[in-house]
Amino acid sequence: MPIYTVIATFILSLFFTACTPTPDVPLSPELQHYALIKKNCESLRTMPGIHVPDALDKECHDFLRRLDKVNALDYKVAHFNDDVEDPYAKPKPEYILLQKDANQQHLIAKVEYEELSNTINRVSLDAVEQNELADVQLTLLFPETTFTKAHYDYYKRQAAEYHDVPQYVTYKKNYAEELVDLGLVHLSEGDKKSALNAFKAAAELNNAQAFYLVGIIYEAKHVDKAIEWYTKALQQGIKGARINLARLYNRNHEPKEAQRLYHEAAEDGDAYAQYLLYEQYIQTDNTKTNAMAREWVRRSAENGFPPAEYAYAKMLLKEEKKPEAQEWLTKAHEHGIRAANELLGDLYYSNKHYVEAAEYLGAAESAKAKYKLAGMYEQGLGVETNYYRAYILYKEAERLGEKKAKKDVARLAKLKTPKEEAHYDAAKRKERQLLQEQIERNGEDPILRNIRTKGMRVHLQGLVMLPLEKGHGFIIHSEDGKKFYVIDQQQQADVEQYQYVDITAEATGNPITVSNNIGLTRDIYQFRFQKHCSQ
To answer: What share of the chain is helix, strand, coil (3-state, %, to 5)?
Structure first.
């Protein structure tokens, strides 16, 4: 009888065994978790035409005997007091001894089940080593069998039909994920060669993320190879590869192909691609390109890209559509765009909502914002009058380039009081203390020295870009133009596309070299996610 027929008949027997009532006492509730292994062992002993390895036959036989013994004891325990009319009667000594014996047999059954499981796995691996396909298939019918790398390699060498076996498919997927994780570890250590080998091995197993990561490594020096791998990633469904391809085509002096890919991604709803098209078209000052820039930034904003929300709001302000602009500025502010603070402060100020104006202007960093806030402190608009704070703000505005603040500094120097100065100094000391506590809690700011130092805890803030759905990492775009790659293999950060994050991460000290949007190379330093921060 062909082995396929034998195995198929065996599987059917399991099905019918499950549906046919047994004359024996049913397994007790405490033994129900052994029901499947009992069924499998019984079928091995009753099905004709199947060779059962001796070790497996013996262990199954011993376990079934033990199970029968334990089940019989459970049955006796359960029905021992059937004739006792008083439910509160004191248990008989015989009953206590019977319970003790049953508990002891349960422990022995557990040990024998573990021995049986170990035997199944040992027999399975021996069958792989001895090229006994029938025995391998037989053992894999037991859920207790662990599908190992040896099983995977063995089935891989068999006919293609074995590549559809559920355990094979599952192992292949998990193995590819492990290779990706290994590659990310090598990449974080600066070992690009080992990372490349791991990613390529995962790509051979059709891991879509691996195709993309191979392209990342090749970007630095092998543009053509990177294009080849990103193209494969795109074919595997990684839509984020289109942006990378467009960057590389720009670097390869093929702007038409780059533009085609940007448009393709933008038309497909990619908010980042839409914003990049806006940035391109806004550079040319003519009616047609301005209209195209406006359309793309509007679509990007509506798709939730925070920089587009801010840029679109600025357009609306120029068009004197202040209420609509304020809505978009508020969204941009809520999504972490700090540049929106100044414009929001101006809008609230112009509407004489001074309390709100002071809040937003206080969060802004520009000379203009500080100058306006200084005037509010001098006049007591939305805040308590404080000449010393106004004096300090005028000085900051002057330092940042506001020339007319010079006269105000001289004027306020005569109005400020020692009491105001003392209160300000006390507030500043408290602010410095809180800042130091925040640094101790969240890490250092990402200056060049810190991001290059392995093991340094760094405080990262910015916009999340997820080039890979369910990927093992994400990119942070900070508002000052820096980019950081955060490795997050277990997806502990639980971040979403275009989310503003404030996190602590550990620097690996190693960068990845990629291309920017105009075809030049840049280094993006790698970090390992640690935690979300509380300010």
So the answer is: 65, 10, 25
| Residues 178 and 205: beta-carbon distance below 8 Å | no
Give start and end residues of each alpha helix (H) in 417-501: 418-442, 448-451
Q: Check whether 342 has a pLDDT greater than 70.
A: yes
Which amino acid does the sequence have at 314? K
Proportion of the chain above pLDDT 70, given as a percent: 93
Interatomic CA distance for residues 341 and 366, integer angstroms: 10
Give the pLDDT band of residue 11 (cuts 50, 70, 90). very low
Helix or strand holding residue 18 (H, E)? helix 3-19
Does pLDDT of 7 surpass 90? no
Residue whose structure tokens are 């330093």: 525
Residue 18's pLDDT is 36
pLDDT in tens, 433-453: 998 988 899 999 999 999 999
Q: What per-residue confidence (pLDDT) applies to 85?
A: 65
Burial class (CB in 10 A: 0-12, 13-18, 19+), 426: exposed
Please give the sequence-ordered ranges of beta strands (E in DSSP) within 31-163, or none if there are none.
none
CA–CA gap between residue 225 and residue 23 (Å, rounded): 68
Reported as a pLDDT band with limits 50, 70 and 90, residue 249 is very high
In this predicted structure, the answer to whether residue 13 has a pLDDT above a threshold of 60 is no
Cα 38 from Cα 61, distance rounded (Å): 10
Q: For every residue of 193-209, which 3-state class applies, written as one string?
A: HHHHHHHHHHHHCCCHH
* Residue type for position 157: R
List own/partner pairs for 510-514 with CB under 8 A and 24 or more apart. 510/187, 510/188, 510/189, 510/190, 510/454, 512/187, 512/216, 512/217, 512/219, 512/485, 513/219, 513/220, 514/216, 514/219, 514/220, 514/244, 514/247
Cα separation, 176 vs 182, whole angstroms:
10
Which of 79, 81, 73 lies closest to 102, judged by CA?
Answer: 73
DSSP type of residue 31: G
